[in-house]
Structures are given as structure tokens and as C-alpha cells.
Amino acid sequence: MSEMAGTKKFSLGRIFVYGFLSLASLLSLFPFYWMFVMATRPSAAYNSIPPTITPGNMVVENFEKVLGTIDFFQAMWNTIILCTVVTIVVLMISSLAGFAFAKFNFPGKNAFFVAILLTMVIPPQLGLIPQYYLISKAGLLDTLQGVMILFFLNPLGIFLMRQYISGSVPDELIEASKLDGCSNFRIYRSIVLPIVLPAFATLGIIVFTAVWGEFLWQFTILRDPEAYTIQVALANLSNTFNIDFGMIMSGVFWATVPLIIIFLFFNRFFISSITDGAVK
Known about the structure:
This protein has about 280 residues and is mainly α. The chain has a domain of about 170 residues: MetI-like (MetI-like fold, Orthogonal Bundle), CATH 1.10.3720.10. It contains 12 helices and no strands. Helix 1 runs antiparallel to helix 12 and helix 3 packs across helix 7.
């Protein structure tokens, strides 16, 4: 009798948890669904009462308006290049720096690490003018290189990698590798790098999505339409007196689709990085 009661209680608990998670998932997905609905409707549907919640038949027409207003595919390609290069560089720099802070002792180690973490609390707007001046002097205005260089040093990435390497790479393994004659870079390449691959997925998704959605710095640096990223290009959809919300939502929706696909593709690696910390 007690076992049946325990099973019933456990089942009811699981039903409550799954029900709550399902509701939370639906609430989280609703903005994306509403964005799709607006992308298939005329501009007037944006302010309609009651709100429109069913898709329309203007998905192709609205997207054709986007293509006629901005160079959507060029901006998308520029954004993919920007995010990919930044993500790869950040992963390399962060893992190398995290390895150094986690497994090596050198003068000023803690001071350097604290200084890097303190940069996370500085609002990026404060550095906008000096950063713009430096990029201008370097001749990198209106270039993707000028946008990229600001994102290469990622304090959050260094912190995450330092914490992951500290808990996942045993000191004994490092010492044994040194006794075998391995250089520091060989230890990083052959031992540390395979272990931190799950953490790469987490950091990679964070960096990729952050750079994809960043607007202020990209808008400040890029003025040439050929170099526009998707965020800057979408901003030009509303530079008219008669704003077409259907066109804007269509552009935003199709600009979000690649990001969703990338997240779903790397989702299993993201989950494994949370649950997998063992040395293999």
C-alpha cells in the first residue's frame, strides 16, 4: 500500500513538473510565434484589437519587400562571417587564458584575473568614443575587422574556461605530461583541449548569439551598405515615415531563423557541457 502511494505521489509530482515546464516553454516560444504571425500579415494587423494570433498569407510578399529595401542576404553573410570568426577566436583565447590562470603560477596572477573580471561591470557605452577613435586611426572603419576586434577578448569566456579547467583537468595529469617531456602548448592541445570541448559548446553559443544580437558597436562602425551586418540592415527598414510593420517583422523573423537552427544543432553539446565534467 505504501509503495503504491509513493508511486502515485511520484507520478503526480512528475506530472506537475512536466506541466509547469511545458507551460514555461510555450510562454517562451510565443514571442517567436507572434513574430511569425506578424511576418505573414499586413502592417495594420500589428495594432489590431483583438490581437491577431493566426498566420496570414503575406509571408512571401512581406519578405519581397525586405529584399527590395535592404541587401538581406549580403547582410546575413556578413553577420555569419563576423560571428563565426569572433566565436573561434574567443574560444581559443579564452581556453588558453583559462588554462594559464587555472594551472600556472606567475607574478600578479590573481591581480590580472580580478582586473579581467572587473571589465565585465564597465558599461560598454563608456568605451565607445575611445574605441571608435582607435578603430578610426587603424583605418578599420566600415570593415568587419573593425567590428570583430572589439569582441576578441571576452572576460566571461576566460572566467568560464578557468573554472571548467580547474575542475576537469587534474593537476596530476599535467605533472605527468611534463615528466614525459610535453611542452605547455602540447599539454593544452593534447590534454586540455579535448576535455574542454563540451564547455566550448556553451561558450560558443553564448558568444555567437551575443555578437549576432549586438547593435550599438556595429551601427557605430559600419556605414557602407556592403559591410552591413543583419542588425544594422534591419535598422534601415524603419527609416521611413510610413513604417511597414509586416515588412519589419518579416526581416526580423528570417534573421532569427539561422540563430535558432544553430542553437538547436549545438543544443545537445550545450547540455552535455553542464552535466559532463569527467576526464575521458
